[in-house]
Design a protein that fits this description.
109 residues, alpha/beta, 4 helices, globular, Thioredoxin, redox-active center
Length: 109
């Protein structure tokens, strides 16, 4: 459920790919049973292509990676977290149109 440019993030690789990365990372916390998650998935794929080279974009399946979801207090999905220099700098909960997401992401690139 992710395009070629979208990283698959797990409990095992989250630290290396996100927390220890100096640049900007958008992380989509999702689940296969979540309707709004399925609606936002193609938008995330498009953003990954548009922001390629400017930021990493990855997805965490909350059913398979409960530790990471719990660590960041993800209570509703989809939840999009923006990290910069390994620290959470923004949080967007629920479906958002692509234009709204781009406005938020442009603050960090």
């Amino acid at each position: 459920m992710a395009g070629d440019k979208v990283l698959t993030l797990t409990d095992a690789n989250f630290g290396e790919q996100v927390e220890n990365y100096e640049g900007v990372v958008l992380v989509d916390f999702w689940a296969s049973w979540c309707g709004p998650c399925r609606m936002i998935a193609p938008v995330i794929d498009e953003l990954a292509v548009e922001y390629d080279g400017k930021m990493k974009i990855g997805k965490v399946n909350v059913d398979e990676n409960r530790a990471t979801a719990a660590k960041y207090g993800v209570m509703s999905i989809p939840t999009l977290l923006v990290f910069k220099g390994g620290k959470e700098v923004d949080r967007l909960v629920g479906f958002r149109p692509k234009e709204d997401l781009k406005k938020e992401l442009d603050k960090y690139v």
